[in-house]
Every structure is written in structure tokens, then in C-alpha cells.
């Protein structure tokens, strides 16, 4: 089987979003919006059948996420495993949370504040690919210095096993993507903000709004005891600005707007300790 072209799939999804009727886009009917996006993908003649299937899978995951984010009451059913009410079709959000909580005793960062932050986020996880976690440093290979980003050092690395991407209903466990590249950003104290506050904002927003901040978790560099965020490397960051075309620009602007709402939502949330 010919492997699908991931970048083309991503572009097709972004293009589909630009075509949504404003009336559909502004209402809270996630099913109507999802059906429009799915039909747009299926009508895309530049995609192979395998690529259409992959794009549809990604849209299905996004639909399930939106059902939780926007408290959608269009679809609810009882999970056969945990017996709790679930909103998602491709996974049970409650089973994921129960699974993660049962695993709390199997890992630690060595810092109670970091452990507590990650556990709070995991108890509120809404999708497999949005789970944030503690990443042991020895699971990161080929670590290379990239640049200075503000006051922080930025590195690239290969994450062995990689992020979660799917929930296995039969085995009742999360499935990982496999090795992939990530960005590592060191966390530093600033005059008006501690490294833990920065970590909290990234993980809290990233665990709910991956379009804005795709943050996989935290690790610790044992050589200097610096905590680091593991983040999505981003195809857009690799492009010269001139190569970012209209649909890409629309996608960036849309995500920036969502980011403002996400940050406001984060500011309004009470801090848990």
C-alpha cells in the first residue's frame, strides 16, 4: 500500500475549515460542522482513498474533542466498560481518566508540584492525543541545541515511543504514536513569573487547546536540573514565511483567536493545589 502524504492530508483539512459557512461555524452544532468537513474531504479529488480515511479519522477525533470542550449534548451514551456517561464516539473520556489515575503511582518527577500539576491535567483529559505526561529524560534521544528562545534554551530531540494517539477499547489502554521529533524548551524563572507558572499555563491550555499550544509534557535535564517542556515541533515553524499560503494564514489567525479565548478561560479557572 502506498503511504499517505501527511502534509497533503493536513492541508486538505485546513482548506476544509476555510470553506465552512459562517452560519454553520458560529453555531454550537458540532455534528453539522463535522458532516460538512467530512463531505468536503470525501469530495477532494487530490486525495487517495487512504488519505481520505486518515483525514476523516483526524476529523472524528476533533469532533469528539469539541463535544467535550463545548459541552455538547447532542450525543451521550453509557460506556460499557466504566458505566459512566460519555460524549465521545472513538473513545471514552472517563475510561482514559481512570486509566491515567490508576497509573499515578508508577511515575514521579521527583517534584510534588510538578506531579500535582500533571495529575490535575490528566484527571481532566479530553482526548488521547491531548494527554500531558511526565517524560523521563532517558526516553529522549538525539538532543541538539537549536536556538535561544527569549530567556530559554530550545532544543530538538527524538521522543522514543512518543505521544499517545489512540484509546484501545478492548485492551483498555492508550496507544502511542512511536518515535517522533519534539521541541524541548527550558523553563526559567523570570522577574514576574516562576518556571512552574509557565509550565502550568502551557500544560493547562495544551491539554484542552492543542491548536494553540501542543504541549506533550515535562521532562528534567539531569545535567543541570532544568525542567523542560516537550512541545510539537510544528511544520509551520520549519517554513520560510513566504511559503505560508492563504489557507495556512487563515488557520494561524483562527488559532490565534481561539488562543485568546483559551487564555481567558485559563485565567478564569481557580488554581488547584
Task: List the defining traits of the structure above.
about 270 residues, 2 domains, globular, 10 strands, two-stranded antiparallel sheet, six-stranded mixed beta sheet
How would you write the strand order of the largest sheet? 3-9-10-8-5-4
**Fourth-level CATH superfamily of the largest domain:** Phosphorylase Kinase, domain 1
Write down the oligomeric state.
single chain
**What's the architecture of the largest domain in CATH terms?**
2-Layer Sandwich
Euclidean distance between termini CA atoms: 50 Å
Total domain modules:
2
Secondary structure tally: strands: 10
Shape: globular
CATH top level of the largest domain is: Alpha Beta
Order of helices and strands: HHHHEEHHEEEEEEHEEHH
Portion in beta strands: 15-25%
Structural class: alpha+beta
Q: Indicate the radius of gyration in whole angstroms.
A: 19 Å
Look at the structure and give the mean pLDDT: 83
Number of helices: 9
Describe the sheet with the most strands: 6 strands, mixed
User: Which percent bin holds the helix content?
Assistant: 40-55%
Low-confidence stretches: 235-252, 266-271
CATH topology title of the largest domain: Phosphorylase Kinase, domain 1
